User: What shape does this take?
Amino acid sequence: MSRKPVAPKAPPPDPELVVTYDKASKFYEPGETVSGTINFFNIQTHTKHLDVVATAEAFMDTVSAIRGNMGRPALKPEERTMMMHKKMHLSTGGSVGPTDPVRFEFKLESTT
Assistant: This one.
């Protein structure tokens, strides 16, 4: 009895992370609350997680990162002028899926 070779199963697609802000404009003033959702797409089913931690940063080197190879390379993190660095613990245990986003919210503090 001969067996036909079974074709290997294609790997699942890489998860896609989408951040959506509650405020239509992405410009915020000090003292305002920044809020929104983080959603995970391209996952097959609801996926269990332990902790969900997000980091929000604001620094002065964003233009060179956008330009890519057209200008100088982006500065290394330790060389950037940091205006804000917030680490947020959003969830402990649970599951995420395309229909279950994780909420975030933090107050934008003045740097002056």
User: Anything to note?
Assistant: Residues 16-107 form one domain.
